[in-house]
Amino acid sequence: MPPAGVPDDVVEAVGGVTAAFEVVEHARGMLYAFHRLIGRADAELADALDRLAEAGHPEVADELRAEVVGRNVLEGRWTFQVGEDFDDGYYRAFADAERRTRERLVGGRRHVYESQLKERNRTHGRPGHEARPTA
């Protein structure tokens, strides 16, 4: 529940700020998935090129290895550097702004809007619809 005196429209607007940040969190997870997938592809390619060389085509393997294995995904950057730049820039700025907004307007409480929504939609007294965990 919101602190006393915080109007519903403020709670809803702050909830919108948090919802937007949750989209950024999702994008961040996808960025880290991208990082993992590119690393995996690079390692799998290196293994495949070893097999290609062993199968009698070392010149093709060497050419492809020099062109692709260990290559930057963006100018001067491997994927870990892309993730670090994102974390240190846009992500950190948005996370700090979202937290400051909650602190200023709803006493720092998280998911106030969702808490109100849950309270409105749950069936009071019914198993599986408890307001909070019992333990």
Oligomerization category of the chains in this entry: single chain
For the secondary structure, the number of strands is: 0
Major sheet description: none
Helix content: over 70%
Globally, the shape reads: elongated
Low-confidence stretches: none
Task: Estimate the mean pLDDT confidence.
Answer: 96
Strand share of the residues? under 5%
What structural class do helix, strand and pairing data support? mainly alpha
Reading the helices and strands in chain order gives: HHHH
Terminal CA distance: 20 Å
Radius of gyration: 24 Å
What is the number of helical segments per DSSP (H or I, 4+ residues)? 4
Jot down its keywords:
135 residues, mainly alpha, 4 helices, elongated
What does this structure look like?
By secondary structure, the protein is an all-alpha fold. The longest helix has 47 residues, at 8-54. Helix 1 (8-54) packs antiparallel against helix 2 (58-67). Helices cover 70% and strands 0% of the residues. The chain has four helices and no strands.
